[in-house]
Amino acid sequence: MNERWSSEEEKLQAALHAAAQNVSPGPDGLARIRRRTAESPWWRNPVFYGVAAGVATAAAAVVIAVNTLGTGADDLSVSPADSPTSSQTSVPSQEPTTGPVDPTDADPTRDPDDDPGDDPESEPIDPAEEPDETEPPATAERMALPVYFTVDGQVNREWQSVTGTDPLLAAADASLNGTSFDPRYESLWSPVEVISAEVVDGVIEVDLRSPVELDADPELADEAVQQLVYTVTATAAMPLVPEVDGAVPVRILVDGAPADDLFGSVDVSEPVTRADQIDVRYLIDIDSPAYGADVSSPVTVSGVAAVFEGNALWELRRDGEVVDSGITQTEEAFTFSPFSIELGDLEPGTYEITVMEDDVSDGEGPEPRFETKEFTVVAP
Predict the structure, then answer these.
(1) Where is the GerMN domain positioned along the sequence (predicted)?
(2) Where are the alpha helices (DSSP H) in 90-220?
(3) pTM of the predicted model, to two decimals?
């Protein structure tokens, strides 16, 4: 099945790419830790339900197109702009740098090729080795990439601005070795070198250097493999990798040779496809604002969720105090579907937005899943 782009999606991919070109992570970005309070979870408070019951919200347009990442081509994540293709297998000439990506900050009218970030430390080219003029060397640039980590053993996406020349390699390395901006997110892998990641005969080949080890409970070995598979397949579905059209499987190599298994338990002797997202994906994902992002008013929260009857509760806090709350609905129920929350004009300051499942068990079942993002509203 072919990936088709609407005019809105084309505008979005340009916007995300422009945002990636502009993002520079602040020196304190990873040090910002969310506030925790000792009070009982707000979703257990009957007062909230009394307030929320009177709130009727309609699902607005989502800012991340094709947000419901499933196992088919139409469900794959899509995102920004043109970039060197994965056939250009040169490793980035500098360590990849990452930053959170907030799609709402982008200027869709800006040419994404305006500022391709050169590498100031690159060695001069020997004239005898100078490439043909028709094949100039790839230039490192910022790319907005869908990087998957895990929350409570389930995969979840974080859009990151990564500097490099090869989107597949950069995304795989960021997932397995990078640091998420959201402190709840983590990788299930021990650090491992990603030698290459490229599309070969309709299959994504990811070559890892041994040792390849799990940094989690052995029961999460399958989820660790899916963390990598979801990352590279989502990246391959973007126009950054134009030779891929639709869903493709992933072949995992170790030291250049096909691996029979990973972590001593996961069979990877054949190319691996995405597991059904309802089985491996965290049920709530806030795409925008990104964790730690600076935004301006009016503020819109958007993401994707698979929640009972399409209902999700939300709460906005500032300095530990609730300033707003309500109910939002996904576009479809019982499947991963977009949601949107209009917060309107907010005073400058740091806020925390939480979106969570409605507890239909009335406290008798498991704790509802939730997603929290901290963001800062800046003065105009």
Answers:
(1) 146-259
(2) 167-177
(3) 0.69
Main-chain dihedrals φ then ψ at residue 33, nearest 5 degrees: -110, 135
CATH architecture of the domain formed by 39-67+281-377: Sandwich (2.60)
Nearest to 168 by CA among 243, 268, 269: 243
Read off the amino acid at residue 45: N
- Record the tokens describing residue 97, joined without a space: 């740098």
157 by DSSP, 3-state: which?
strand
Residue 7 CB burial class (10 angstroms; 0-12, 13-18, ≥19): exposed
Q: CA 311 to CA 70: how far, in whole Å?
A: 20
Q: Give the model confidence (pLDDT) of 214-251 as tens digits.
A: 999 999 999 999 999 999 999 999 988 877 766 899 99
**pLDDT tens track for 315-333:** 999 999 999 999 999 999 8
276-306 b/e with 16+ CB inside 10 Å = b?
A: ebeebbbbbbbbbbbbbbebeeebbbbbbbb
Which residues of the chain are in CATH 2.60.40.10 domains? Answer: 39-67+281-377
